[in-house]
Structures are given as C-alpha cells and as structure tokens.
Amino acid sequence: MIKAVVVDDERLVRKGFISLIDWPSFGVVITGEAGDGHTALDLLRQQETDLLFVDITMPGMSGFELIRQVRLRFPAVRCVVLTCHHEFDYVQEALRLGAVDYIVKTLLEVENADETIRRLVERMKWEDGKRDTLAYGELRIMAGDKALLYLPLQPELNEEALFALSLVKNNPLLTFQEMWLTPLTRRYTAEEIRRELQAGLGAGWATALLEGVRDQPLKEIEEVLGRTVPQALFYYCGSEELPRLQYGELMVLPGKDTRATGEEVLLVNALNLKWTLERGEWEAFTATVLSQQPPQEAVAKFGQDLLHHWSRLLLRQEEAEQLELAAHTNRNWCEWKSWLRQFSDQVQRRMIELGMSKEVMYCLITAVGYMKSHAGDKINQGDVAAAINMSRGYFSQCFARFAGETFGESLRGMRLELAKSLLLETHAPVCEIACQSGFEDDRYFSRLFREHVGKLPSEFRAEGMQR
Known about the structure:
Layout: E1 2-7, H1 11-20, E2 28-34, H2 37-46, E3 51-55, H3 63-73, E4 78-83, H4 88-96, E5 101-104, H5 110-132, E6 135-136, E7 141-142, E8 146-152, H6 166-169, E9 174-176, E10 179-183, H7 190-200, E11 205-211, H8 218-234, E12 244-246, H9 247-251, H10 262-269, H11 279-292, H12 296-314, H13 317-327, H14 333-354, H15 358-373, H16 381-387, H17 392-403, H18 407-425, H19 430-436, H20 442-453, H21 457-466
Parallel strand pairs: 1-2, 1-3, 3-4, 4-5, 11-12
Antiparallel strand pairs: 6-7, 8-10, 8-11, 9-10
Helix pairs in contact: 2-3, 12-13, 12-14, 13-14, 19-20
C-alpha cells in the first residue's frame, strides 16, 4: 500500500479531497493530514510516508518551501502539488523543486478524480520498478554499468540544484558523502548529457561519467568515490568535456589521507624555479607532478608561495595581480599547468630584460632562497657568493641589478619579514626576536623596525594579536 499524507491549511478542503476518492481501490491509504508545513515535517518524522499532497499557498511555510525541505530530509517521499493556480510559473517552480505531479483543486471533480489518481499511482509504480532495476539484494548491488557523478566545488551548494535536471527527475539520485550519483537507467549520448549539464548546472559543479560499476556494492562505491574522486577529477587529463572515470582504476588509487609527504616535498623543492628556466626541467617537473599527484590543496599552496616569494623580484605588478586573480579560479591540474607556464614565461622575460644567462639567473634565484633560509644567521655577502660559486664582486654587481637594491638592503628586508613572523607566531621577548632575526642590538632593531613598518615591534605584535 502507498502511504499518503495530505497537507492543506483549510480543513474543509483537506476533508473534501480525502473523501472525494476511493483511495483503497488504487492501493493508497491516507495515514495522516496536516494544516501547515511544520506539522507535516513532524508527521514525516513520526511515520513512514510514500506520498505527500501539498497545498502551495499556506501561511508560515509555503508549499514550495515544504517540498524543498522534504526533498532534502526525506528524499524517498514523492510530492504532488495541490493548487488553485493553473499558471505555468507555479507549476514550473513546483516541478523544478522535485514535485512529481500537480493537481488543480478547482478542476478536480468526481468524474476526473479517479483518472488523476490512477495516472499518479501508475507513474509511481513505474518509477519504483525502474529503481528496483538499479540495485538488488541485501548488499544493494549496482545493476547498471554507468552513473553520472556530481561534485560541488562550493560548500554552500547542495542537491537542490540537481532537481532541475531531467536526468535526476527520470533517474534515482543517490547521496554519497559530499557528492551525488545518478545511476543511468537508459542510454544517453555524451551530447545529451553535456547539453543537460551545461543548461542546468553552473561552474560551481564538477561532473563525471562513472563507468564499470555493474555488480559493485553501493557501500563500497561510496567508500571508493569519497576517497578518490576529488583527486581523480583534479588530475583528469582526458580530452572529453565530460570526464570519464573507470571505477576499476579508482579502486586502486591511494586516498588523499594516505599520500606520502614526499609528494608535497616535490613542490617545496620546486620553489627553486629551475623548471622556469630549462625546458627539460619543466617537462620533468610537470610529468612528476602528474605521476605523483600531490593533493590539490598542496598545488594551490605552491602557486600562492610562488607569488609570495617571487612577485616583487620577477613579476611586474600588473602581471602579479593577474596571476593572483587567476590562482583563485584554477579548478584542476590542467589549469594550474597553464598558470605555471605563464609564471615561467614571466621569469624568462625578466631574465631577458636583465640581459643575464640562464646560469646566472638561476644562481641569483638560489642566492635569494639561501638568504631567506639563513636570514636569522650571521651571514654576509661573501658567504652567499661562496654558496652559489660566484666571486663576491660579480655577485654584488649582478644582485643589485636583479633585486633593484643592494645586498645589505635586501638582507635587512628579509630579516624584518622574519621578525614580523616571529612577533605574530611566538611569545618570545622582543630582544630574543631581534637576535633570532639576525640583529645583534635590540635597540637598533626596534628603531629600524619602526622606520620600515611604522610601528614599534611591541605595537605590531599587539595589533596582530587583536585581529
């Protein structure tokens, strides 16, 4: 028996609708009624329900909002709209939210009521039959071979956006952790799917066609997808607009929590920028990233670190701003690879402007990295020149052209940046921070800090702690 509940704020309308139809003859039993949306939701929590007849215009919670809540909280319950409005916009909005049918109350008479309910019950049986073909047995085994996968790229997105898709209206929608899956009950061409997704979903969703899931337990599918799909989609390198993921390949992929830290070390080491100067190094670097697949969060951090460490020295201001904006929109490795190519081109453009060879350019980049990592130590220009195998005089000349300031000015700036970090990240006294930042005299440090930052170290720390 189909268990149904009627929701309408007018009691006489509810009673009239219930008494108008011989429900048992259609295999339907009315198990409850409610006068508002909140009461209806309470009723659904208390008893098993298959079908909900919902009035659209109710005080408090409208029928539209009730349908939305039912789809989110009780996805197995089908909703039918009861309305006095025959306008297309009302009907369209109700169907968009997931209602399976609508009944115009003013047109419902004894003569046509039976046919209306018969049509509704037949449709429900047909849909249930379709659902039964998708999974069978106690383990819930997937019977079909293909499914469409939806992954939200923004935390505020949920399944409500999927209800407008005919693919979802005509097929079940399974919730798997933070993604959704539509098993496909019939053949769809790639073009049909592409058009549907393009028209119904925005850029906030990643989608993929999942293949090879026939006879796989749904519980196992959920575990595998939750562990691997975000990473697999990030590194997908197929030519199709709609990624095609093979379930068998996903099963053997390591999960995001089991990836070795060495894969992230790859990106840390790449901050030396050797890949920006040599074609062979570029190809080796990008190929290694693709094969080791560091977490996408690590790739995004790598891009931000490049901008943070090198924008002032290697990029014009407008170039840095453009790359900064683009970094926030990159969604996959292909887009990040193009972004890194642009960064590399700007480094080579800077090298040509300075009239330097690749070897000298790399030595200067290495020198900056050495200075930053040893900013708190007692180093001088000779120490850095020796570390990169250049004469002190030639290094001094090249460095001033490269950095646009003397070695001493550049090192002092790095030490002040180190001091800022220590002031905000530790509780050490200012005198100790001065020493850790490479300044022997804490009074000189405080005076210099105020000249360049505009505040005393203690004032800078106090303001930073309040944010």
